[in-house]
From TrEMBL:
Ranges annotated as spanning the membrane: none
NCBIfam families membership: tigrfam_recA (TIGR02012)
Ranges where the record places region Disordered: 337-389
Species whose genome carries this gene: Actinomyces graevenitzii
Keywords for the protein's UniProt record, in alphabetical order: ATP-binding, Cytoplasm, DNA damage, DNA recombination, DNA repair, DNA-binding, Nucleotide-binding, SOS response
Family: Belongs to the RecA family.
Task performed by this protein: Can catalyze the hydrolysis of ATP in the presence of single-stranded DNA, the ATP-dependent uptake of single-stranded DNA by duplex DNA, and the ATP-dependent hybridization of homologous single-stranded DNAs. It interacts with LexA causing its activation and leading to its autocatalytic cleavage.
Signal peptide as annotated in the record: none
UniProt name for this protein: Protein RecA
Primary localization: cytoplasm
RecA family profile domain span: 39-198, 203-276
Amino acid sequence: MAANQPQDRAKALSLALAQIDKNFGKGSVMRLGDDTRPPVAVIPTGSVALDVALGVGGLPRGRVVEIYGPESSGKTTVALHAVANAQKAGGNAAFIDAEHALDPEYARKLGVDVDNLLVSQPDTGEQALEIADMLIRSGGLDIIVIDSVAALVPKAEIDGEMGDSHVGLQARLMSQALRKITGALSATGTTAIFINQLREKIGVFFGSPETTTGGKALKFYASVRIDIRRIGALKDGDQTVGNRTKVKVVKNKMAPPFKVAEFDILYGEGISREGGLLDLGVDTGVVRKSGAWYTYGTDQLGQGKENSRNFLKDNPQLAAEIEEKILAALGVGEPGRRAKEEAAKAAQAGANDQPAQSEETKTASKKLAAKAKRGKKAEDAFGEEGAGF
């Protein structure tokens, strides 16, 4: 009976798994090592450096993403670039404008198809999250942006007096909403971006006093948390034309966290994708920089970063080729996956091409081994005789 116990347990487990697949669909339970899931589907952010820092080539589909930082640091710009990229791939997007501050003209300049972008400007936090939940559960969305968590004001606070205390209302609202929508996001493959603001905790003497609004639920449910900061100004002569931006991936369930990326945000244009390609291209060796000149293969891209950036902007096919080579070199995204597969195949082919030892070689090796063995015996015998002498 004891001998059959492992077989009985394995059979019982197989029956249970078959019943679960029948009731809830194939793949409801699987072994962690099973390679049945496709590679992570992503939405590019518009910055190649940020896509690389995320480790999977963009924002993961079916997950919660939080983007937070100080005012005017580029939070909404990054979110709108992701919306534009999702639309370019044929997807649908929605924008919950709780701050009532979305600029359609700026969104259009970033590449957003404003005619097909679903926009809601809700009155209360409950209304905003209910609309988001219904849109996500429809299964027709690829990406939804909630801007911002701080503006999701509970109805009780709006209806109350100005001095009333409403401790924990927003945190409870966020916790309830995230419990509902997280499963729906995974089932429909929709990416939810929550834009958040920073606050300072009073009386903190050790560590950073900065914290985000909306309680702790979003920190737990987010698969990716991005901290975005403005670190410098971009100038054309005396005129400021943009910001140098630094991003840190402070939480990442899809790849190793704490990666850092830097990119340029130009006023009226958004993230400079071409500038990021030049920076990463030089770092990876895909693009060569000699003095002020940038060169790719036999093509001279231009003298100076600005001219080279404009050249890539005018030649999108060349820019796409450079981007693919950068991602392949860094092992990120689909190009990186293909490069790894090709390297593995080449290594396997090299191992298979090793010539097997011929029969003559094996025979010669055996003879040499036997000769060495006889020589060893002779030495041992001589040693014994010498000892006796």
